[in-house]
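User: Structure please.
Assistant: Input sequence and predicted structure:
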Amino acid sequence: MSFGSRLSSLLRRAAHSPQMRRSLRRAGSSIIDAAQEKLGDQSAPSPQGVGSPRDASGPTGDGSGAALADRTTDRPAAISYAPHPDGDPDPGEVVWGWVPFEEDLSQGKDRPVLVLSEEDAAIGGPDGSGRVLIALMLTSRDRADADEVVTDRHGATWVDVGTGGWDRQGRASEVRVDRLLRLPAGAVRREGGRLPQQRFDRVVQLVRETHGWAD
């Protein structure tokens, strides 16, 4: 039997193997998840035309800023609900900002984030200077029902927070509570809305529990 015939026979046997089919499905699902996370969710552009998943050059959109490492969890963040209609990003507000990909800080996309607090950069990380925002990323991908908390296959924990002005299509959103973003002022593009205090308090409670800050 020729090499080509033996290879063809092996491939046919593999195609009929339930274990092989399950492995291929899992691999395909992971690839699709990653692609949708980077390209698909919450990509409605702002009036200035940002918000495109192709805007991946840095926090300022022109490559002049460097993304900051995620916040460490060894010290609790001082979180309080304090939205103000002043054009500045405040705790309790959802704003659009440049968020780096977790696996590669040099790449990212504009997306809505929930502001938790503002603090000196030195408190929660080894890089950056001055004041930084502590925030959580939002997604419109449907993982959880209303008020439900879900941990996905990648270990990320999400809580449903309903709808708001940050999504022009009126889709329900979820907030990721296990990843604490540190965003320099130049990473923020525009305000997107305000989370009601009851929902904000629910998110903060989960953040404290997830990161071991609960009393």
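The chain has two domains: 3-33, 40-210.
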